[in-house]
Amino acid sequence: MLSFEVSGSPGNGAGRLGTLTLDHGVVETPAFMPVGTGGTVKAARHRDLEEVGASILLANTYHLMLRPGGDSIRRMGGLHRFIGWDRPILTDSGGFQVMSLATNRTLSEEGVLFRSHVDGSRHLLTPEKAASLQVADFGVDVAMVLDECPPWPASQGELRVSMERTHRWAKRGREEFERVRESGRSAQFGIVQGGMDAGLRAESAAAVSALGFEGVACGGVSVGEPKEMMRATVETTGPLLPGDRPRYLMGVGRPDDLVHAVAHGFDLFDCVLPTRAARHGLLYLPGREEGTLVIKHARYREDLLPPDPECPCSTCRRHSRAYLRHLYVSGEPTAATLMTVHNLHAILDLMRRIREALAEKRFETWAAGFPAPPGLGKDSR
Description:
The protein has helices at residues 46-52, 61-66, 70-75, 79-83, 95-99, 127-138, 156-180, 198-209, 227-237, 255-263, 273-279, 314-318, 321-329, 333-359, 363-368, and strands at residues 2-8, 17-22, 25-29, 31-33, 57-60, 89-92, 105-107, 112-115, 122-125, 142-144, 187-192, 215-218, 247-249, 268-270, 282-284, 292-294. It is α/β, with parallel strands linked by helices. The protein folds into two domains: 2-272, TIM Barrel, CATH 3.20.20.105; 278-368, no CATH class. The strands form four sheets. The chain has an eight-stranded parallel sheet. Strand 13, helix 10 and strand 14 (268-270) form a beta-alpha-beta unit. Helix 11 runs antiparallel to helix 14 (333-359). The protein is globular.
């Protein structure tokens, strides 16, 4: 089941409030989905995710089909029961991960034949297989259609071939989804491709939107392109997607980029960046000029201030910069957990503040004053 209601929007393609109702709960949008690749967010417990306000979790088909396997997850009652998470789950189709295995995969019209990074075994991932895994085996709330995610840079000819294959795969994936899903349950999102070419993006948005997906995503960004190209693509693509369905920007997670994308009509986001940054000792300070706190710096050695004195998360309420630095430089695993909790709280609280600004009709002014934090690196899934 999926229903989506837009409760506030100054116009098509602009920031908007929404309520997304799924089989396992309600998601207030704009919303960020923490990435739990193999059914877990690295260094965090589900209790931590609930504490920081995560309403939906993203997991990945590629990793789960390899370990523990679709058949095993189905026998255990589906992904929600297996991992002990009773809120909504969206699964990526695995296309991005498979495409990144350039030396270990063969692409054809049928699908992608690849060797597992775990044990070298051979697997064929087709649009039909991706749909069946996510819906029949995992039983997730939202399944993503299998797409081809081209790298950057690519020629217009290469982008067109890739985009048109994505459209054919989308049609096949949609047909399989309709065949295997239980009546009234689950949803499937299509994915718009086309690289950084505005004309191809428009063509892809029209083709994918026409296939009847419950939501539409913009894929193929954060794949190494310059930031200005990514933002131009976001600005071009957002208004092209159906206004009555959720719009999902895949793989983007810098705070300033989230604010920018909301301003251009996107509702859902995911990225590993907040949790990966935490494991590398970078603490988010969204909306502040400094952007991040680098905990390994010697100046924090005896600093008894919380990581962010304005943050109410459990890490900031209880622990000092000095303690976190001690844990991090000592290689203690607890450092990753405590900093992951803070970064997830920071990004989810940012989304809350965005929703609040939208509700109070002051988002445009608020967003104009939001600083671009330096030094967070490239977005990556």
